[in-house]
Amino acid sequence: MGVMADKRQLEFFLLRYVPDAVKGEFVNFGVMEIENGPNGPGLVDVRFTRDWGRVLSLDPQADVEVLAALQKEIQQEVGRKIDELTLLKKMEDSFSGLVQVSLVMPALTEKTAAVEIAEVAKTFLQTAKVEPRPKPPAGRQKILMTMRSEFKRVGVLELLTPVPVEPYTRAGDPFKFDFGYRVGGEIKLFHAVSIEASVDSAVTLALRYSKIEPTMAQLTGAAPMLTAVVEDGLDRSRSEVGFPLEMMEESRIRLATTGEMRGIAELVATELRA
């Protein structure tokens, strides 16, 4: 009985990236460790992968920056008593099914919590690692690369910063606009959106910005102006293209293509040097 009393009652949940719910393919990218103590369950640790190559191999369009930001949000709960179901459901809902949580893996152990989670992370986050073949940037990443390249060309990349929306939504919101700066009474925002890769991302941005804009304006005393940068050569006559573009325009989001980034970058440089 004395040996049993010294053992820790731990539970592990794997965080999985699931880009296509129909196919059901997934990649484990994180693990949470919960300990059942006398006062109820509490989150004791969380570990994420250090190599997002497996996620990008499964889905080259994956926004790993947002996934990585989730770790910081979860770490804020470490040491606190938690409601497991509420925490897990919140994560799944926040990512619209792209992030799913595995079934619980219980462990009764004499090892420390740190040793246990290190072993679980090694097993599930590093197994079957396959180096992905180099692929040219595509979708949102390709647009983002073009934006960075043009801003760097005119010497303003270091003057632009990602703009988190957390102050204008609620605590823990990991979303950020890719680039932003303030000039006079305006806040200029730029965000890469791939219509070809995902209609949902454009629609989600339109819906979210319509709520973010007035709050940002009220709290900053400046007028937000968001430009969504999309691919060149989109055919608006196709409903799957025209619909998300119209949604963004109706939410007062300006549209620009990667081909227009050269002129946009030069205008940004003029404003920032004025």
Give short descriptive properties of this protein:
single chain, 274 residues, alpha+beta, Trna Endonuclease, Chain: A, domain 1, 2 domains, 5-stranded antiparallel beta sheet, 5-stranded mixed beta sheet, 10 strands, 40% helix
Short description:
The chain is of the alpha+beta class and 274 residues long. 40% of the residues lie in helices and 25% in strands.
Counted up, domains total 2
What portion of residues is helical?
25-40%
Q: How confident overall, as mean pLDDT? A: 87
- Please provide the count of β strands: 10
Instruction: Tally the helices.
Output: 9
Specify Rg, calculated over alpha carbons: 22 Å
Intertermini distance: 75 Å
Strand/helix succession: HEEEHHHEEHHEEEHEHEH
What structural category arises from helix and sheet content? alpha+beta
Within the CATH hierarchy, at the fold level, what is the topology of the largest domain?
Trna Endonuclease, Chain: A, domain 1
What is the annotated CATH architecture of the largest domain? 3-Layer(aba) Sandwich
Would you identify the regions where 5 or more consecutive residues have pLDDT less than 50?
Answer: none
| Relative strand content | 25-35%
The largest pleated sheet is described as: 5 strands, antiparallel
Dominant shape: elongated
The CATH class name of the largest domain reads Alpha Beta
Structure description:
- With 274 residues, the chain is an alpha+beta fold.
- It has helices spanning 2-6, 53-58, 64-75, 84-94, 113-125, 139-153, 199-220, 239-250, 261-273, and strands spanning 8-17, 27-37, 40-48, 99-101, 105-109, 161-164, 176-183, 186-192, 223-230, 254-257.
- The strands form 2 sheets. Strands 1, 2, 3, 4 and 5 form a 5-stranded antiparallel beta sheet that branches.
- Strand 2 (27-37) and strand 3 (40-48) form a beta hairpin.
- It is elongated and about 65 Å long.
